[in-house]
Design brief:
286 residues; alpha/beta; Rossmann fold; 7-stranded mixed β-sheet; 3-stranded antiparallel β-sheet; 7 helices; globular; binds S-adenosylmethionine
Length: 286
């Protein structure tokens, strides 16, 4: 009995500690995103938005559109450039992000462009009840899942905010790419684990993905999620997967050896048609 009790205590202690660690890691990530939000405000292609051109790429347009007249919740909307693009393309958009600075800049951009997106600050793992509405579309894209320490909570948020019959859509870096390292003499190598681990990877300060001349002061913590983790989290919430598509091109330069082609996408030279770099997924709440 004593052993059992002791084991239970140890389990609870570990559980509480890992929750606390997750909170600390989230706070660190929040600081990072607050730091880089103004950098992105000056380096994202906001000029296109100012000239009336939406930033949503042709893959998403083909797979998700038309969105005219639909209510849309954008999870992890950052500085709002995609949220405002979706609004320009006809949706009634609400954007949520946990970075105070990102949300402030999103509101500023919204006002500058005369858009009508509602932006609010909130953690997508803990935002049920923050918005008193359900949506035709819940949308998230481009660099979102690695910041989350609990995909089941994330999928609960997705399902909670979807109307019955509503659509969930994601465009994201393919989990296989997170295994790849090109900072080696031998070229591209599989260095990092594919499978999820409770402990996040700590990434040091380094050049920003949007403005390579900017070196961030904050380190970050990121979690890897396999394709089955992502799909199963959504299935557990009763969502019906309509499709998963995989691509050998990506929306940003994830590795130094990647190359931007005339079509505007980034490729991994020599690995075209071999390594998936991006996926999209559409699901419906039945
Ligand atoms: C790469 S950006 C989002 C991608 C967006 N398409 C962009 O580049 O404009 C990642 C965003 O996720 C947000 N984020 C990270 N963890 C979050 C969480 N738990 N809840 C809400 N937002 C979060 C960050 O603040 C950041 O704005």
């Amino acid at each position: 009995m004593c052993t059992l009790f002791w084991e239970k205590c140890t389990f609870l202690k570990t559980f509480r500690q890992s929750n606390m660690e997750n909170k600390k890691a989230e706070q660190q990530n929040q600081q990072f995103w607050d730091e880089v939000a103004p950098v992105h405000f000056n380096s994202y292609d906001l000029q296109s938005l100012r000239t009336g051109r939406s930033l949503i790429d042709e893959v998403q347009k083909k797979e998700l559109y038309p969105i005219e007249g639909k209510s849309l919740l954008h999870l992890q909307c950052h500085i709002g450039s995609d949220s405002i693009s979706l609004a320009m393309d006809g949706a009634e958009v609400t954007g949520i992000d946990f970075s105070e600075k990102s949300v402030a800049l999103a509101k500023q951009l919204n006002e500058e462009l005369g858009a009508s997106v509602q932006f609010l600050q909130g953690n997508v793992l803990d935002c049920i009840g923050k918005i008193d509405q359900q949506f035709d579309i819940v949308y998230t894209s481009q660099g979102v899942l690695g910041w989350l320490n609990d995909l089941n909570k994330w999928a609960t948020t997705v399902a909670h905010y979807l109307k019955d019959g509503g659509t969930f859509y994601i465009q994201e870096t393919h989990p296989v790419l997170y295994m790849v390292d090109d900072d080696t003499k031998e070229g591209v190598k599989l260095t990092y684990p594919y499978f999820h681990s409770k402990e996040p990877m700590r990434w040091g300060e380094g050049p920003d993905y949007s403005d390579k001349t900017y070196i961030s002061k904050n380190h970050t913590f990121e979690w890897t999620w396999s394709m089955s983790d992502i799909v199963n989290a959504l299935i557990k919430q009763g969502l019906q997967i309509q499709f998963i598509n995989e691509y050998d091109k990506l929306f940003y330069q994830a590795l130094d050896s990647m190359e931007k082609r005339a079509d505007g996408w980034w490729y991994l030279p020599g690995h075209e048609q071999k390594v998936p770099l991006m996926f999209t997924l559409k699901a419906v709440k039945t």
